Amino acid sequence: MSVTAPLGFVAAGVAAGIKANGARDLALVVNEGPSRAAAGVFTRNRVKAAPVLWSQQVLRGGRVKAVVLNSGGANACTGPLGFQDTHATAEKVAEVLGDSAGEIAVCSTGLIGERLPMDKVLSGIELAAGQLSRDGGLPAADAIRTTDTVSKISFRRGEGGYMVGGMAKGAGMLAPGLATMLSVITTDADLPADVLDRTLRQAVEVTFDRVDTDGCMSTNDTVLLLASGATGVVPDLDEFTAKVTEVCADLARQLVMDAEGATKAIAIEVIGAASVRDAVTVGRSVARSNLLKCAIHGEDPNWGRVLAAVGVTDAEFEPDRLNVAINGIWVCRGGAAGDDRSKVDLRPRDVTITIDLSAGPHSATIHTTDLTAEYVHENSAYST
Amino acid sequence: MSVTAPLGFVAAGVAAGIKANGARDLALVVNEGPSRAAAGVFTRNRVKAAPVLWSQQVLRGGRVKAVVLNSGGANACTGPLGFQDTHATAEKVAEVLGDSAGEIAVCSTGLIGERLPMDKVLSGIELAAGQLSRDGGLPAADAIRTTDTVSKISFRRGEGGYMVGGMAKGAGMLAPGLATMLSVITTDADLPADVLDRTLRQAVEVTFDRVDTDGCMSTNDTVLLLASGATGVVPDLDEFTAKVTEVCADLARQLVMDAEGATKAIAIEVIGAASVRDAVTVGRSVARSNLLKCAIHGEDPNWGRVLAAVGVTDAEFEPDRLNVAINGIWVCRGGAAGDDRSKVDLRPRDVTITIDLSAGPHSATIHTTDLTAEYVHENSAYST
């Protein structure tokens, strides 16, 4: 399953010793072709980790033979030596595969600001290369976890018999334009790199980009789409984009469900917007209100905090035409109190907050979580 | 002291019964003249509470006879009826003072979305009017508290014998451009409304506007500056602005110290910026990183989270020229690890994070707090 659901891919996940606790921490995903067309989307953070700088260069060529991913260290803010480490990592993968380092993508996740233990990374690559198999998708997904409590995997079958598979990690620092999130999506359809690139951007924009658990954007976010062409199927583009989007949406949903310390998965559904941009802006502002996220944690349908968060945006709306529903109860109508807030049932894990801007026909949904004492605890102690 | 430190002002703070717990909840500050020049700065949130809409209109005239402030309810998102309540409140104050409602400012703070118990507000105004005195500054400062654990007051003596006094409240929702913050500043200097307006804007911009405890901007933020002219002193403008700024800075510092659930007062000092705007933008982005605020709570000098927050801004900088010091130890130099992070002592309550953008001569400091389980607790339970 996972990245090895499509034909033409093998993978492995091993314990290289990068993590102190002996858990799996290095994954290798190899495209056996015949095609190696690929596309990538990366963090918009201007402070980019070494593996992001490296992989952006690789993806410019539109071809990826293999992806090596490690948890246990982000290799971010590590200067020129950190970039050399990424380069050496790619060279090592190229060596064991008898290929070119220029077509090896590298992803890292973990603490920022510390060098990787390169002896362990390099021996881990040798170990992983020896374990590459069609069953390697699950161990690979396991190896990229940091504070993730579960592996995230997904796959969909497309018309004509091709597959799209994927894995992802990311539990904190999930925000605008990706997250501390790594994801590799694979397919055995046969499509050129420029088509994969358009498809991936469209899919990410409405899935991973609409997850915002804590407003923090990572230095390492990377989503890759690799095509082996092993089925020879050339799918209809809309259908293919729909399948890739489904896989991304499924993985994004799993990320939200597993967000650090969260007890609620909150969908902020903005409707009646003058534009999709307005809807996303409003959804993101509401998703970032610590006060609202605390209220939902306390199962308090505090719609005033929703309006306060809407009010700081530049979206088109009139304050006295705003309507807000929480789990289906319209607690705010026309900018003032609406139906009885005691009717709102906030006990379920899934919470939907609907905001009607009464300004147009557009809509968008942003996915976030509540803010909990456990989030504080996990992130107070992460590096110790 | 507080707002009655300057001559020409009387005040009162009473328990009107708006708060269920019987604490003081209504304050009245009256300017006995001879001048009643005044200026105001209000929330930039587009969802504005009724008292903000009202007081903005009053301040357009540049004259304020009295300010009535209540805690226990924000009168925000209450529709046309809420605005009528504010109007009736001003009319009642005008009636008891034998003055015009058009020169009565109104401030409210508390829960959003619920109407005020107007019978209690109106009888409270009568009660307060009977207790107006030169000693009323402290009870007034007490009456405007919500989750504030202490009253916030300040005063400074100016050259030539005039005074500047002030009170403030605000413990959560402290953010961009003010906070759920109310503040009344008074002076017995003699200056016209347009001068007060310029002075207040300058003072607020570098004090209250640079406090950002949780990134949430309230619907009710109001800072008023009232001048009685009772000393007849016409101060030097720069000196006057400096005194008003000192009072605002002192009050802002007290707000940060008392922020909900905080255990650390964090100064984000941005230096080497290409512009003051860049410095403020970077400071605010860092102040809003939940991940960093959790790390500081855990006394973890996690400078990687500082760089991640700098990286999402559009400020002028090169990633490999960023330097970061935490409590004086330069843990990040040139965008990579610098001095040994184990040298950083994060045990004191006051924490200074210095960010050198290496891009110019400008600087600014943003004040914030750590993120704690207590913040989550207070804000999960606020309305219950």
Sequence-ordered SSE layout with sheet pairings:
Two copies of one chain form a homodimer.
Chain A: E1 9-14, E2 26-31, E3 37-42, H1 50-60, E4 66-70, H2 79-97, E5 104-108, H3 118-131, H4 137-143, E6 152-157, E7 163-169, E8 182-187, H5 193-205, E9 222-227, H6 237-257, E10 265-273, H7 276-287, H8 290-297, H9 303-311, E11 323-326, E12 329-333, E13 336-337, E14 350-356, E15 362-369, H10 373-380
Helix pairs in contact in A: 1-2, 2-3, 5-6, 7-9
Give the overall silhouette of chain A: globular
The most extensive interface between chains reads: A-B, 67 and 68 residues
Residue stretches of chain A low in confidence (pLDDT < 50, at least 5 long) are 172-179
pLDDT averaged over residues of chain A:
92
Main sheet strand line-up of chain A: 13-12-11-14-10-15
Which CATH architecture of the largest domain in chain A?
Answer: 4-Layer Sandwich
- In terms of quaternary structure, what is this? homodimer
Annotated CATH homologous superfamily of the largest domain in chain A: L-amino peptidase D-ALA esterase/amidase
Alpha carbon gap, first and last residue of chain A: 34 Å
**What's the number of helices of chain A?**
10
Helix content of chain A: 25-40%
Q: What is the radius of gyration of chain A? A: 21 Å
Stated plainly, the CATH topology of the largest domain in chain A is called: L-amino peptidase D-ALA esterase/amidase
**H-E order of chain A:** EEEHEHEHHEEEHEHEHHHEEEEEH
Strand content of chain A: 15-25%
Q: How would you sum up this structure in a few lines?
A:
With 384 residues, chain A is of the alpha+beta class.
